[in-house]
Amino acid sequence: MKKDVPVLLLTGYLGSGKTTLVRDVFQDKKYISFDDKNMRELAAANPNDFIMAFPDGAIFDEAQKVPEIFDALKLHIDNTQWHAGKFILTGSSQFKLKKKHVRFNGRKSRFFNAFTLCRI
Description:
By secondary structure, this protein is α/β, with parallel strands linked by helices. It is about 35% helix and about 20% strand. It has one domain. It is globular and about 35 Å long. The two termini are about 25 Å apart.
């Protein structure tokens, strides 16, 4: 799933297992939930500095709640050395995330849709 791009975007319905999946697959990444109002405000106030706080990348859960983060991520990726799968973004708003994906021009991000996961 990491492939050759610095940003992965994962979308799906609320409760489909996005957060569980990325936290399990990317255990080495810091996890930030933008469901947390304080984190949202911090990231929105200065998105460039917020991203710089994660030199090894991070998981940004519910990324569509901080639209400012997308331009800051693009700028960061364009101006720094990156590694595949550096930033993982999740969101339950497929339309908003897909629209932001276009800003990364497809060569720097991959878009995935999570279908509901269930335990048998």
